[in-house]
Amino acid sequence: MNTDVPPSNGRETEIRQLFEIVEGVHGGVGGAVVVVGEFGSGKSTVGRSVRPRAGLRTRFVRARAGEHGTDLFARLLGTGPVTDDVDDVVAANAALDALADATRGGPVVLVVDDLDRADHSARRLLGILARRVASLPVFLVLIGWRRGESLPAGAAVLRLHPLSSGDTAATVRGCLEASVPDSVVDDIAAASGGNPLAAREMAAVLTPEEMAGHASLPEPAVPGPAWTARWRMLAQGLSETGRAAMLVVAVGDGLPITVLAGACARLGLGGDELDVLESRRLVRVDESGRGWSRRPHRSAAFHSADAASRRAVHRALADELQGNADLVLPRALHRAAGEEGTGTDAGDELESVLRTVEASPAALNGWLRAAELTTEHDARVRRLVSAGLVCWVLGRPAQAEWLVTSAGVTGRDVSIAGTAAQIRGAVALSRGLPADALRILVDGAGAAARRDPRLAVDLAARVTGLAWWGGRADWAEKAANLADSIEDEAVESSGVFAALVRQAAPAGVDVMRDNFRPAIGDLTRSLQDAVNLIEPRELLFAAEIATMVGDDVGTRVFCERAIRAMRVRGRATELPFALQLQALVLAGQGRLEAARAAADEGLSLAAHAGEETDGAFQHTVLAHLAALDGDTASCERHRRAVTGRGAEHPTASLDWAAGRSAVSMARFDDAVEILVPTVLGERRHPEVSLLATPDLVEAAVAVGKPDLAERALERFARWCDAGSSWGGAVQLRLTALAAGDSEDLFDNACRATGLAQRPFESARTRLAYGEFLRGKRRRVEAREHLHAALGVFESLELPAWIDRTRSVLRASGEGRTHDIPVADVLTPQELDIARMVSSGRSNRDVAGALHLSSRTVEYHLSKVYVKLGLDSRDQLAGALAD
């Protein structure tokens, strides 16, 4: 039987379960399955999938409304009525005889869809047959069963639950163009409640503005025709007051049930209506006492009501929430929604409340409603720009830009113009246009310098960071000028962050122009007060400063604090950058798995937010991780994902990653060719060129070009002397390498402090010293340092560096001790892997068999080679046979 599952909107698991049940009919054993689930859950999709895939004769029929059982069965078999007798037993016996005749040509599968629409006699007849077909090669697939009726005994039940959020999103995505932002897809998926039909219908009724991500979806989302009709049918089973109570819950979704009950009372509804809705599973009350209307029924109930009824419910909820200090925003939202036309007081109250709350979808809807409620131009502009800022914070750049453009900002209000510049600059940067971003941010900061110092400080910090990452000293000078233009009184009133920006911006210019003293010291001292910062954006700027001065601990601490705050507050937009910065410092420390997890999450979030750069920064970090792994192909793949995006995207770090990869693989000639322009070129990136220096020095010494090493080391040494803790420790190694014949320098490098947070660099120092001692024919001493390096590389799981160290160990004369049994040398897991590999199995096969990752298998295999003194897997079988 064909077991491939076709696309089925997330129902692959249920289809597999169905075919496991149907499989028995191939052996002549009959049976039945009833597929049940709510309207639109995909019952027909699952049940009908048996037709093209069972490899059996299949008959299909869709029940008609009110159809009698004998008539339905006759249509199913393509015969006349099997009997005119209405007695259940007689009818069932006649049907069984007809089935026996139908199976003379072999097993058959009978599929009945929409069975819940038929007369009760149809379900009764098919229920009897479901119990009695076991002796025949017949399988019944019964799709749909009327709620409240007992399911047939003897039949398997395949119950369809709501789709997961991921499967629902995939269903929605399949209905829309690829350009539709993920935020739109996610909103529909949530509104549909995991119902496939509702999800498809909601996607189908989107407006062009909604599909482009410009306009917010209505709250709740608009249902399609089938679900609208379904709700009307369900509503017929409710009393008039029951339907009104359902509207109350749909409008006040998520409010305490006591508030919903109070609103019902204000509208003159009975006190037990909510209980009735809960008993019918249209409303649920969670553990905290909040009432929620079922999805997608909420959308259908809300949009089936007229606007006047909805406004009346909003007003009742606002009145019920009066004086509730814990629900100030919901009250203001409902009051504003209850207004007809424009309402100055309601709009002003809503704006006042919104200025006190964090960014959220509710806040976004509030700003948009507040803008609708005013006829005054400046108020409308202010509220639309505020809505744009919320969109940007929530990770909806397309809508943010559209709102700012729609607002028609004139610049009369400096604060509004500055906020608009903040949004436009961020959007430009997400599109890979740093020069445009710089121009917009500089203009906004200049305008806000006197009138809105807090905003000016924020914009100046963004310009500063943009200049540093872009490697543009001329941009950094503009940032310094902006910071300097902020008056002293404004700085004092703006607190620690303003002082930090004022101090860091000019110091950054000096660092970028190689004037490391006293700039590095000034930046380091500026971080002392930064520990008091609490805002995520401010913490990120502090992390950028720590990165520039080579303070790993500071970078990591500030990043982690910023990320925690962003997750708690839902600040999605800047989270990818925060994760990128965290991944960079983790990579420098050799913590590749943690770095890869941060970079992968950042890449996913960047794509989800609709960044046109598609996570270029994250691809850059991943290129470095692949380089440290010695995975040249992956490094190049991530490089290609970034290059070609336009000349404005900096590529210096990507070039460093390529050189880093060459050093990891001991391809030193290639490394020199790549890294000389990166480190010593006239257009070098000020920060990247410093960080890439250790790789160039090692490669240059290895290929006999000490002059290159000395040129690179001179600038790096001045940076280290100015205050970098880890840099100073690495500098000792580089000096020893460049000297060529100085044991004392290597001793000093091995004893240097400052690498506690950088075990990878510490291991490189040990490896370099071991190579130096081996060259002096002091092999025993060399092995001591080589084993120390190997232990660290193994703990960091760096295959390329493990191989390099192992090669030097073999060159030092170390090999396998033949009189020690292999089982005493290898761990049980290493032995299992070695035996499987020696039998010819690939790393991937071994990984699958042992439930490990391929990378973990490669890591353990490297340890096996070292312990046994082998060069390749070709020697492994012989070693195990000894």
Written account of the structure:
This protein has 882 residues and is mainly α. Among the domains are: 12-159, Rossmann fold (3-Layer(aba) Sandwich), CATH 3.40.50; 165-222; 815-881, Winged helix-like DNA-binding domain superfamily/Winged helix DNA-binding domain (Arc Repressor Mutant, subunit A, Orthogonal Bundle), CATH 1.10.10. It is 65% helix and 4% strand. The protein is built from 49 helices and seven strands. The strands form two sheets. Strands 2-3-4-1-5 form a five-stranded parallel β-sheet, with helices on both faces. Strands 6-7 form a two-stranded antiparallel sheet. Strand 3, helix 6 and strand 4 (138-143) form a beta-alpha-beta unit. The protein is flat. The two termini are 48 Å apart. 53% of the residues are buried. The model is unreliable at 1-7 (pLDDT under 50).
Topology:
Elements: H1 12-22, E1 31-36, H2 43-48, H3 50-53, E2 57-62, H4 69-77, H5 88-102, E3 108-113, H6 120-132, E4 138-143, E5 156-159, H7 165-173, H8 182-192, H9 196-204, H10 208-211, H11 225-235, H12 240-251, H13 257-266, H14 273-279, E6 283-285, E7 291-293, H15 297-304, H16 307-320, H17 328-337, H18 344-354, H19 361-372, H20 377-394, H21 397-407, H22 414-430, H23 434-451, H24 453-470, H25 473-485, H26 488-494, H27 496-512, H28 516-526, H29 536-548, H30 552-569, H31 575-588, H32 592-608, H33 616-629, H34 632-642, H35 652-664, H36 668-680, H37 686-691, H38 693-702, H39 706-721, H40 725-739, H41 743-751, H42 759-775, H43 779-796, H44 799-811, H45 822-825, H46 828-838, H47 843-850, H48 854-868, H49 876-881
Helix pairs in contact: 4-6, 5-6, 7-8, 7-9, 8-9, 11-15, 12-14, 12-15, 13-16, 16-17, 17-18, 17-19, 18-19, 19-20, 20-21, 20-22, 21-22, 22-23, 23-24, 23-25, 24-25, 24-27, 24-29, 25-27, 26-27, 27-28, 27-29, 29-30, 30-31, 31-32, 31-33, 32-33, 33-34, 33-35, 34-35, 35-36, 36-38, 38-39, 38-40, 39-40, ...
